[in-house]
Structure formats: structure tokens, C-alpha cells
Amino acid sequence: MNILILSCGTRNKIIEYFKRELPEGSRVIATDCSGLAPALYEADGYYLVSPIKEAGYVDEIISICEKEHINAVFSLIDPELTLLAENKKRFLDKGIIPIVSDYDVIDICFDKYKMFEFCYQNKIPTVLTYKNFLDFWEAYEKKEAEFPVFVKPRCGSCSMEAQKVGSIEKLKLLCEQNPELIIQECIEGIEIGADVYIDLLSEETVSIFTKQKLLMRAGETDKSVSIKDSYLFELIEEFVKKLGAVGHIDIDIFKKENRYFISEVNPRFGGGYPHAYECGVNFPEYIINNLSGIENKKMIGNYEAGIYMMKYLDVKVASDLRKTR
């Protein structure tokens, strides 16, 4: 069984986990557009590829899949998920399984205002969100909204341009500079990350791992502690079933005064997934089972609470940055 991991970047641990879990004789192949992506050199083989926006990129990936006899492919970055979802049939016609949700699910996940609308319409508790400055101003004038608020790009990742705002003057200025900013109520509470696996065969949520985020760095969880709450598990199951996602996803959640609020979804491996794996929540194994035609049994909350994760820096050196290996 051979797996292709796209845009691997610095996600060495994901490569390592799949190499560890795959049966003997299998290979993990990685791609990136930069030869300085350290995770490339963790894989059994790698390819330097064009940037994802270049014409012919999908053809390039399919060609690699055919050459390496790839069984399944997935990406570790948001923009590429849209490409995979749009071209699902092309991969499937070649006998390659793209591990990605359908396009309409990806579209909701990448548009924070659409996600708010989805949660609101489906009665999922979420963070109150305004599409633009005018919508917020109307609510503010009616005393239905207050400061501080939180602004972020409607579509974007890695917490780019996200910031807390405490005045109408600054909010107006920021929205004039970037009309694509959305405005959210500022929830002062506990930040939680959920790593969720939805079985590719049964389409049922079979695994959930939740952690309290203690420190963030560049939009990723840097330090965290595992937590368990049966009510939160039920909320996540309900939300995921209505959303229709499949495979591995990452959900951001807020907790305030014993209430949970769904915030965002990354329909891929989250940056904090190593915490789940090291606690025994083995998504690579679940993926391998599914690719082998085996449905996974439900194992929600099958881990120990109170286990801390602390990321630290490491170094990878290479003397030969060839296009392929």
C-alpha cells in the first residue's frame, strides 16, 4: 500500500506516523514545491512539484500517483483540498482514493461566514459573526453587539490578519483596508481543538480526541492538554453528521461558562494532531483499515485525559536537493 502526502512542509510527524503504521513493503511518498520542506526527507521518496496554482498541477500529481502505484492521496494544506475535491473523479477513475471531503463541504469550511450560516441554520452553537462592517454597525447601533470584537479574513488560514479590536474607529479602518474581513464576537474562554475521524466506508464518526490549547504559535497548537467531556463529544458528532465531512478533520471550539461554541473546521490533519497520535488515537491506522476495505469500530474518547503535549524545534539537514528521490 502506497500513500502520497501532498504539500508536506514541516509536517515530519505525519510522514513518520504513516511509515510506522503501513504494512511492510509499503511506501510513503511526499511532495512539496520547495526543496527546503523538511518533511520531504522523512519520506521513502519525494518529488518537488509546481506551485498548486500553476496550470497542469493536478496532471503532475496524477502522473506521480501512476508512477509510484499510489493507493491514496491527501494534502496537508487548505488551498490544495479544493483542488482534490474538484478532481475527485479523475483520481478515482485511476484507482486512486483522494482522502478529502466533497467540494461543498470544503467550501463551507474555508469560508468562515458560510460556516457561521451553516451552524446557525442547523442550530449548532457557534460564534456570532458579521459579514462586514455595515452589518456589525447596524447591530451595534441597536446595542445588539459590543466591543471588543475579533476580526479575521473571511477565507484564510494560519491566523493571518486575525486580531482583537476594541473600538469602532479601528474596526472601521481595518475593514476599509481589507473589505474581506469578517467580525466576530470576542469569546473570552477556553480554546479547544478536536481531532476527528469520520470513517471513509461507514461515514460515521469513529474517533474524537479533544485538547485544551495552552499556547499557540503561527496558528498551530504548540502546547496542549488532553481533555474529555461526553457532552462535547455528542456535540461534535451531531455537527459532523450534519456537515457531511469524511476522513480526518480538525475542529476549533470555544468553551465559555460551561457552553461550547463551534468556531472553525480544517478538513485535514490539524497542526496539533501529534498530541492525539501520541495518546493512542491512531488516524493513520484508521485510514489504512479503510483503504483495506475494513470499517473502523467506534472508539470515541478512547484515551487518557490530563496528558500534555509540548512541541519543540528539531533540525533536518540535506546535501542534495534533487527534484525527485
UniProtKB/TrEMBL annotation:
Chain ranges of the ATP-grasp domain: 114-292
Pfam annotation, one family: ATP-grasp_3
User: Which keywords does this Swiss-Prot/TrEMBL entry list?
Assistant: ATP-binding, Nucleotide-binding
Output this protein's name.
Carbamoyl phosphate synthase
Tell me the InterPro entries matching this sequence: ATP-grasp, ATP-grasp_PylC-type, ATP_grasp_subdomain_1, PylC_N
Report the Gene3D superfamilies cross-referenced here: 3.40.50.20, ATP-grasp fold, A domain, ATP-grasp fold, B domain
Supply the SUPFAM superfamilies for this chain.
Glutathione synthetase ATP-binding domain-like
Which species is listed as the source?
Acetivibrio ethanolgignens
UniProt GO molecular function = ATP binding; metal ion binding
